[in-house]
Design a protein that fits this description.
It is built from 11 helices and 19 strands. By secondary structure, it is an alpha+beta fold.
């Protein structure tokens, strides 16, 4: 149930916003906006809601839940009208569109708040009604930056008899156990008890759909991974078959694509596929190669299974949290946070990062990421690592006050440096490391190229178990 035109006028009369200053702006959700105003020693929080069946404007004394991630329209409004004075506030005729005239830093603005149930919006324009931005960008209604907003026309006939046709809902009636100091207070109560419940029910339906779809996809992925593990369980057979080829290699005649021989473990006759043009050693090497590949794949699958199980646990925990949450705004935030793809979420820095026992490790994977990390995200005392004689990424260990980088963290960083370089498969590898303050850029050199001084040498053999542990840490952080 949205506010009618007379209810809007009563609310604006009680708010008395003319002459107020906008001290802050919070947008807890895509369809809700809160203006923190101040006038003559009195602070008011004005809530503007554009959600269907909850469209309204009123003063609220309830705590406004901040969004985890700042939303676009809020950031825009803060940049333009935070600190602005409200010079004029009035509904246009009885059209349920409120006009706020604002002035700030020598600029004048018109803010239109349209409180229509199916087309509510908040639009900020300059003094000539050119749209600067809007809560909902609607090209078909010309509610986009650069367009001209056309306020609704005041129709005189509509004004006649409006009080009878659009009565103000009763509050503080006789015998009512609840009393409210103002119509604003009543509206704030009514929507908190009714509209929020309606929206919470709708959000729970949405949450149920999200949970069923998301969980079923992850469950199918887990089932497929477990099936692959079963397929890899016989990988030891490949090694045994390679051993048989070496044992009976003298039977290869150079013509047949198969080698028939007796399995010395079972006593049965087996038929092994071979390349007749290759020697016994070469054919066996192919089997050993496939064995190692299957063995490695099995280990990676077990890691992927562990990550997928943790993702399922996270989905279950989040769904339980949503079901227990009474605040619909918070439910909306939880759903939005989980549904935002990771690639669309703003990263604090380029490349990868790992947190191990409280130490932050940054990894640049190419020249652009290396250069960006060097320019904007590391400082003089941070540690820099890079492989010798091979191109590759830069790895940084963020410094901690009065602490020396532990050997275990240094080895983690070194393994990452080798893995993200051309030396990945080179075996034993030399690296050098030094503090960022001892790096200088190569004059006229390629992007990101630096020349180290006071560097120390470190020689390692890549550690698969260590890299797998780091990969798990990174994957869990991405959940």
């Amino acid at each position: 149930m949205s506010l009618n035109c007379n209810e809007i006028n009563l609310i604006l009369q009680e708010l008395n916003l003319t002459g107020s200053f906008i001290q802050d702006i919070i947008q807890p959700g895509y369809n809700t906006l809160a203006l923190y105003t101040y006038k003559e020693g009195q602070a008011k929080t004005v809530i503007i809601c554009t959600a269907q069946n909850s469209v309204r404007i009123n003063e609220t004394r309830r705590k406004i839940t901040k969004n985890d991630k700042p939303l676009r329209f809020m950031e825009f409004l803060k940049s333009r009208i935070k600190g602005a004075r409200i010079d004029f506030c009035q509904q246009i005729g009885l059209e349920r569109v409120i006009l706020l005239k604002l002035s700030h830093a020598g600029e004048n603005f018109n803010m239109y708040i349209r409180l229509w149930n199916n087309a509510a919006n908040v639009i900020l324009c300059d003094e000539f009604d050119f749209v600067l931005d809007s809560m909902f960008r609607r090209p078909e209604k010309y509610e986009m930056k650069g367009e001209t907003f056309i306020p609704p026309a005041v129709i005189e006939e509509k004004l006649e008899g409006a009080e009878e046709r659009f009565p103000i809902r009763e509050y503080n009636s006789e015998g009512d156990e609840n009393t409210y100091p103002s119509f604003n207070a009543y509206i704030d109560y009514w929507y908190s008890e009714h509209a929020d419940n309606l929206s919470r029910e709708a959000l729970l339906v949405k949450a149920d759909k999200w949970y069923n779809v998301t969980r079923s996809k992850k469950a199918v992925a887990l089932e497929n991974l477990e099936k692959k593990v079963e397929d890899f369980k016989n990988c030891d057979l490949l090694k045994h078959q390679g051993d048989l080829i070496l044992t009976y290699g003298h039977l290869i005649d150079g013509n047949s694509r198969f080698l028939e021989c007796e399995d010395y473990e079972t006593g049965s006759i087996v038929r092994l596929e071979i390349d007749p043009k290759k020697s016994a050693q070469e054919n066996a090497a192919e089997y050993y190669k496939n064995f190692k590949k299957a063995q490695s794949g099995s280990e990676e699958l077990l890691h992927d299974i562990e990550i997928t199980k943790k993702q399922l646990e996270k989905i279950d925990r989040l769904y339980e949290e949503i079901l227990k949450e009474p605040n619909p705004v918070k439910i909306e935030q939880l759903l939005r946070r989980d549904s935002t793809p990771k690639q669309q979420q703003k990263k604090a820095h380029p490349g990868l990062d790992y947190t191990v026992n409280g130490w932050r490790i940054y990894v640049g994977r190419d020249a652009n990421e290396n250069d960006e990390l060097l320019r904007h995200h590391v400082r003089g005392e941070d540690l820099w690592l890079h492989v010798r004689d091979f191109p590759g990424g830069y790895v940084f260990v963020k410094a901690q006050k009065n602490k020396t980088v532990p050997l275990d963290i240094l080895l983690d960083a070194a393994n990452l440096a080798v893995y993200y370089s051309k030396a990945r498969n080179a075996g034993k590898t030399d690296l050098y490391y030094t503090h960022v303050k001892y790096l200088r850029r190569a004059k006229n050199g390629p992007k990101g190229l630096v020349l180290p001084t006071q560097e120390k040498n470190l020689c390692i053999t890549p550690d698969k178990a260590r890299l797998s542990r780091l990969d798990s840490i990174h994957a869990e952080a991405e959940l």
